[in-house]
Specification:
heterodimer; A: mainly alpha; 10 helices; about 0% strand; elongated; B: mainly alpha; Rna Polymerase Sigma Factor, Chain: A; Arc Repressor Mutant, subunit A; 2 domains; 9 helices
Chain lengths: ~230, ~170
Amino acid sequence: MKSERPDLPLTIARLVRSATPVTPLETPSVRLARWVITSTALVLLTVVILGVRADVTAQMVNGWFVARATATLAIVVGAAIVAVFMSVPGIEPSRLLRALPLAACLVWAVMLVGTLAATRSPLDVLLQVTPHPSCVLLIAATAFTPEVMLVRMLRHAAPLQARLTGGFAGLASLALGALGTQFVCTNDAGAHHLLWHFTPVVLLALASVAVGSSLFGWAHLQERHSP
Amino acid sequence: MQRAQEGEEEAYAELLVLLTAATRSYVRLRVGAPVPWIDDVVQETLIAVHHARHTFDGRRPFAPWFYAIARNRFVDVLRREQRVRRHEFAGDAWPEFECATNDAISRVDMDAVQQALASLPPRQREIVEAIKLRDESVRDVAARLDMTMTSVKVTAHRGYRTLRRLLGVDFREE
């Protein structure tokens, strides 16, 4: 078969013919604010429906509880900012900004490992953690709607780095799910949080990286805007 | 670009012609030597600009927006070309049924071929049948299916690979 190269005048003619007016996308800040507000409201509603832990008022002044909540909130906001800005060509966040949600993840992990390390035998404590798959389910269920909303929002833009966008979108939603779960789950042990809150968030976010290319690849844009 | 967003065909055509030249210059600058796939990058960039035109914010400069897309498409095509050269295709040749050895031909019966074709995903089957059975050119198939030529080639190759596996035939790729 002979080598064939694109017929550019034909391509231009086809693109021009199909150039219907388009409504410019809203600014990333507006879209981000909308997602944060709506998702937080949804997570709050979910938490209320599932039943807020009885000692929530006391926990709100508990440093350990607040520190974990702050770390996960930082991940939510940081990862959402990165994902939304990554979806618009030309304003992709810097490497430093991209590292912020990952740094927040690290802080969360260090806090949990720190409490574990403070025990006499960390490994024994870790091995004796009772399985709590319900926490994983709760995180996934709470994160589901925010994730769907974020994916729809990002797909409406034009992410250039599909896998990374998928990963950050997943991380933002899952961390939000973990934040909500923290207000339902009454087990505050560091080992429990490490195994049944932190680890699932990280693993599922990595899975989001894997599906990112099919969610945010250029193919979906071509399907949506095909002449 | 803003006029193009409003649907002005003339302005859009002018812009795409300008972007064609800009993309070619960009690729030449990055590669430092003439490459045969330069127009693949141009085509992919123009299509990407078209599909992403709603994301351009008129209050921001155009160049960073455009070059972010051009860079992305350039890297994508470059990777694809390198992969194609390294692993998938040797030159521009495709596995032909005619290229199979006599032994391979004797082992293939047409029912098996039809069955194997039927088991391909619809898009792969359509492309393999168009190129191999109806003798359509890659360009025609790409235009008809609204795909880039590179995507058609890659999809076709995946189809050939699956057929090769299903039929147990060692197609020669040269």
